[in-house]
Amino acid sequence: QVQLVESGGGLVQAGGSLRLSCVASERIFSNYNPAWFRQAPGKEREFVAAIGWSDGSTLYADSVKGRATISRDSTIDTVYLQMNSLKPEDTAVYYCAARPGGMSAQRITAYEYWGQGTQVTVSS
Fold first, then answer.
1. Conformation bin of residue 15: beta by default, left when phi > 0, alpha when psi is -120 to 50
2. Dist. CA 7–CA 23, nearest whole Å
3. Number of helices and strands in the chain (H, E)
4. Which of 22, 61, 102, 112 stands the most exposed, by the fewest C-beta atoms within 10 Å?
5. Strand partners, 69
6. What is the chain's alpha carbon radius of gyration, rounded to the nearest angstrom?
7. Of 115, 68, 87, which is closest to residue 13 (Cα–Cα)?
8. Is 49 helix (H, G, I), strand (E, B) or coil?
9. Which residue, among 108, 89, 92, 102, has the nearest Cα to 35 in the 3D structure?
10. Sign of dihedral through CA atoms 20, 72, 69, 104?
11. What are the per-10-residue average pLDDT scores of the chain (124 residues)?
C-alpha cells in the first residue's frame, strides 16, 4: 500500500536549519495533498504546513510562519519542509501526511496516509 517516508531530521542548535523530505511510494500527491505535522512528547499532534499539489498554494501554522517553507517536486512525488531559525520549541517528531481533496488541511482526521516520523531536536 501507499507509504510515506520522511528523512532529514536530526539535532541542531537554536538558530540552525533543517530540510525535511517526504517521498511517497506511489505518485499520489496529485490526489492526496501533502502536509507536515509535528508532535512533542505529551503534546497533541499539531499542524505545521500544507501545500496544494496542483497550484502550489501553501498554508502555515502561526508558530512557523516566516521560518518554514513547504515545497514540492511533482516529478518525483516528493514534498519538502525547509525550516530556518529553529527554536527549542520546534523539537518534535515531524510527520508527513496526505489527505483527499476537499478535506480540511489543518485537521489530523482529514489525512489518510502518514509517515513514520522523523525526529527534530533543537538545543539551546
1. left
2. 9
3. 0, 11
4. 102
5. 82
6. 13
7. 87
8. strand
9. 108
10. negative
11. 95 98 93 97 97 95 98 96 98 97 92 97 96
